[in-house]
Design goal:
heterodimer, A: mainly beta, 6-stranded mixed β-sheet, B: mainly beta, 3-stranded antiparallel β-sheet, globular
């Protein structure tokens, strides 16, 4: 059974870059058939999809965040990562990683537990 | 501001039936993109509850069901139980925004 676990800095200063990693266990990122996604939830607000990476390295981002986001994959470590540049307080959120089927505009399953990132000086 | 609109809260007594609506537009639910539902307990990983309108992953009780009509979808919990107290989110894809979109979330109180 595939499991995902986020890790990274819980505190980022404004204008700096947020960096998170999602470790995949119980399955291989390179097996194909899935996209590897980042989703976030600001305090008291709804969920927002950030983007995904395929095991080949191809990516697709939320147009509203596209200019600041890079999602990459490390096949040797079976993990993928999120870089979000020029962060502001509005980027404070719980960040989740999740898997989705590659061939459809489908569902997210499973999800990681989430990690809270606070943007503050 | 979430693209898909859900009621902030619904409540019911144990054993009752509750329905959560998810209202979209012709760019998402009305464009025949699938709707999926998640159950979320704060501090834990969201769990897939229903996928592609009315399919349950293994392990999800059959008291959970989904439906769709036009530009809206619904999640129904039949025989409400105390353990169903959680936040519920719908999700689809929006062809105008070119991204996956979520509902605003509904807190179910038993």
């Amino acid at each position: 059974q595939v499991q995902l676990q986020e890790s990274g800095s819980g505190l980022v200063k404004p204008s700096q870059t947020l960096f998170l990693t999602c470790a995949v266990s119980g399955g291989s990122i390179t097996s194909g058939g899935h996209t590897w996604n980042w989703i976030r939830q600001p305090p008291g607000k709804g969920l927002e999809w950030i983007g995904y990476v395929y095991h080949t390295g191809s990516t697709y981002y939320n147009p509203s965040l596209q200019s600041r986001v890079i999602i990459s994959v490390d096949r040797s470590k079976n993990q993928f990562s999120l870089n979000l540049t020029s962060v502001t307080a509005a980027d404070t959120a719980v960040y989740y990683c999740a898997r989705a089927p590659a061939l459809a505009k489908g569902w997210f399953d499973p999800w990681g537990q989430g990690t809270l990132v606070n943007v503050s000086s | 501001q979430s693209v898909l609109t859900q009621p902030p809260s619904v409540s019911g007594a144990p054993g009752q039936r509750v329905t959560i609506s998810c209202s979209g537009t012709s760019s998402n639910i009305g464009a025949t993109y699938d709707v999926h539902w998640y159950q979320h307990l704060p501090g834990t990983a969201p769990q897939l509850l229903i996928y592609a309108f009315n399919n349950r992953p293994s392990g999800v009780p059959d008291r959970f069901s989904g439906s769709k009509s036009g530009t809206s979808a619904s999640l129904t919990i039949t025989g409400l139980q105390a353990e169903d107290e959680a936040d519920y989110y719908c999700q689809s894809y929006d062809r105008s925004l070119n991204c996956f979109v979520f509902g605003s979330g509904t807190k179910v109180t038993v």
